[in-house]
């Protein structure tokens, strides 16, 4: 709970929204993450544009909310509670209709969250609508018709057009030839931000890190032999210009820096794009070419700062990791890792490096930083493609959320292996 706020103080927006959301209860669980907080897409697609409407209510905008507006924001979320509960119920129904229709393209949250909010206002709770199943099926069919041609097909045709291949190859070569020369790193301030971002994120510190180009400066080391490979971002000695590519599969994606332009866009198009974001394929391809030649292979300085913060926050986590945390954020991630039951299960085994654990998974457990930075890069890359900005109040949720995702993946994979081997997770 957010309480006991001093007069004239301000409250981080994300914390306040999470607190107000927690009062809505289990009825909004389909719109929440495992911690009971609203999903990032819930905030982006529902709360911001349809409930809080910061463009019309500037007091709800920004990373910090003035204490005089805290109750107003809470009231806005609470008042929308019944509509959000109905939205969640419609979303469950629409997802079932989607499965029955055999629809697999696109992210359901992107496609249906706002449609379900409309259904909630038109029909109330689906339990009270006698034709709810038919309405859900019609919604799926309508969205599918509006989306028209599958975007991945358009992307593939564009990138395999012979005339485009020649032009794009020239753009790619020039983008890498024109990369700016490395410059010395400024006084970074990364540790100071990591010491407070989980509890009291500072807009001033965050803005200074981006304005001073700290993320770009911290990327200089990636061109040194084996540095980017040590972070799990490439399998090569050092990053090289990517291929344009003509095919992709989400089941066989290489490390981020080794992905072709086709693979980078394919991974994002199949999961995060809304129709309006897919309209201009040529511009997106050109943008990705330039992004591939930028620091951390990301376009925006805040994204690069976030990668540098993630690198430092994840340092020393794994078998034989450092004993003394380097920052508060580093300590929190270490503590989360140490609490994982599967870590202790593997440590109790006579030979933790037995053949029972495949080499790739064993490496990930021994050094969590590699899978962590790969997933953080993918998350930031997706945010850039969606045009999402990253504010100081978003950083800890981003860093911690990616870490949780990595641990859940390792836990699930190890549980299956241990059970098959006769052990207990």
What is the terminal separation in angstroms? 34 Å
User: Helix share of residues?
Assistant: 55-70%
Low-confidence stretches: 271-279
Radius of gyration (Å):
23 Å
Shape: globular
What is the number of strand segments?
Answer: 2
Relative strand content: under 5%
How many domain regions? 3
Enumerate the strands of the largest sheet in spatial order, edge to edge or round the barrel.
1-2
What structural category do the secondary elements indicate?
Answer: mainly alpha
Q: Tell me the major beta sheet.
A: 2 strands, antiparallel
Tally of individual helices: 20
Mean pLDDT: 85
- Taken in chain order, the helices and strands follow as EHHEHHHHHHHHHHHHHHHHHH
Task: Name the features.
425 residues; two-stranded antiparallel sheet; globular; 3 domains; mainly alpha; 1% strand; 20 helices
What does the model show?
The chain has a two-stranded antiparallel ribbon with strand order 1-2. The protein is built from 20 helices and 2 strands. It folds into 3 domains: 10-79, no CATH class; 83-147, no CATH class; 179-241 and 293-425, no CATH class. Residues 271-279 have low confidence and may be disordered. The protein is an all-alpha fold.
